[in-house]
Structure formats: structure tokens, C-alpha cells
Amino acid sequence: MQTEEPSLRIAPAGRGDRDALAALLVETVAHNGSVGFMHPLPLEEARAFWAGALEAAERGERVVLCAWRGGQLLGTGSLALVQAPSQPHRAELTKVMTATAARGLGVGAALVRALEQAARERGRRLITLDASLVEGASGFYRRLGYHVAGDIPEYAYKPLGGLGATRVFWKLLDAREPPAAAADPATDERFMRHALALAERAEQEYDEVPVGAVLVSPDGEVVGAGWNRNIRDHDPSAHAEIVAMRQGGARLGNHRLVGCTLYVTLEPCAMCAMAMVHARIARVVYAATDPKTGAAGSVFDLLADPRHNHRVAVTGGVLAAEAGTRLTNYFRRKRGKPPLT
Predict the structure, then answer these.
(1) 260 annotated ligand-binding residue
(2) Report field, pTM of the whole predicted structure over 0.85
(3) Residue 241 annotated in active site
(4) Does the pLDDT at position 254 exceed 70?
């Protein structure tokens, strides 16, 4: 007989939670999480930090929430309520941490939404935060509706050493957001597999970098498809996304691709991202992130920049491992190295 897994419970932290919070902070720092401390972080120092944070919560200066499943602490997040007389509407999101074993389970998103509700209940409608420029962090906050204010280089040392940049975000709670295209995980995976097949064709038939793209109309019809053709066509603009959008524009008889979703096996670069904005693409779904030139949240955040008159909804990480392995092995082969399995 199967027993039902306990549901996630998010509740305000109390003094009795200090030790569990301290252990989570030590774990986060040991995994190079940029939360303001250097490794190794003594447990007593972590306990002292949380003792002060919980006292601030008791004074009404901070909100500290914990995410529990059964008796296990899976994550925490804090909201600093700005005390300046000129900023009674503002709060700062800080110390959002998820236990390593709970990554990918939606704990972080649930905590952020709960903290936003706590901000509303306290009359705060503008939230700001800064997040280290690491893979995944920017996309995480952008998917939750946060906008990028800018990047600050050499902001702080990472726990394991080395200066790192940070990205500043903001969000007006309950502000009118552009409508996002409906997302269905099964549909996303189906079209991404089509794009992966095109990426394989690019590599096997043309020895191009294995990136494939599929353009899908609002009613679910494939109207454009392509793969990297830079080398074959002697065309620096012939990325998979551009090829798919060109085909889609010809098919639809329009330079605007309103309501369309673009599936691509690698996070778009700045060129492709801006082409999507100009084409009025509704949504882009990508597989592997590009930590060097990605423009959908990893390095740049062009698709959601509030200065555009059109913003593109983004979903990342669909079949990321499969796409990433193919790309890695392509370049390993070029360097005469054995493929990864």
C-alpha cells in the first residue's frame, strides 16, 4: 500500500526553527550559494545570523518563511521591510534558499509567491532583489515576473572564492503584466523533440553546430523549422531561430509572427532574441542554457526587458540534458576528445 507524500507547507519561522535554518545556510554556502557568507561558515555563526533575523521578524522589520515537507526543512526565504519614511511601499527579497535535495520541486517558486503575498498584506507593492549571475537564477526570477534593472560587476566574493557579478531585479505586485502564452509540458516536449531531431540533422548531414528550431502557430501548426546554417550558407545570421522565423514569415505572408511559439534547443543569442521581439513572437521555449551568450536570462535578459514595446514569455530547460550533451559532444569531437555518455 502506497502512502501519500506529505504536502508542502509554508509557514512563518519561529525561534525553534533556528537550528534547521542554520544547517540550511551552511549547506547553501558550502555549495557556493551567494547569500552573503564565505565558506567554511561555522554553524555557530549561522545560528547567530538567524537569531538576529528572527528577532527582526518579531519586531515587524522582516518576514521569514520556511517551506516544510513532513518534518524536513526544504527551503526558506526572507522579506526585509524597508523602514525609510520615503519608501513605505517597498520590500527587499533576500535569503531565498532551497535544500540541495529539493531542487527542481518548485519549492523556491512557492516561497517567493508566499513572500509576495506577505508583502501585500503589509502594504508593500514594490519588491527589489539582487541575485548572483549564475546559471538558472536569472531565468527563475524572470519566470516569476521580475524585471531586470541592471548588472553590477564584481559585486561580491563567491563563498568558494572569486569575485562575481550580481543582477538587480524589481517587480510591482499586481501590476498589469503582458499575457503569457498558454504552456503545456507535454506539448513543449513534443515540439522540442522535433527541434532536437533537426539539431541532429544539422550535425550529421552538414557538420553544423547542432541547434534546431521549430516555429509553431497559435493553433499548434508547425509553420517554420530550421537548424544552424552559418557554415553551409556563409551567413553569420543563419542561426536555427532565424531560419525558422524566415520560413514562418514566408508561410504566413507576414513579417509579424503574432501568437507563435518558437522552440529551440539552445538559449537564443542577442541577435535571435531581438529578432523575436521585432517579430512579436509570443513565447520562446529553449532546452540548454548558454552561459556565455544566452540572451533569455543567463547572460542578457533581452526578451523581458521592460523598455521594449513587446516582451516574449520564456520557458527554459525543456529536455536540457539531451540538448546540452549533444552540443558538448559536438565540440569534444572537434577537439579530438571522447564523447560524454
Answers:
(1) no
(2) no
(3) yes
(4) yes
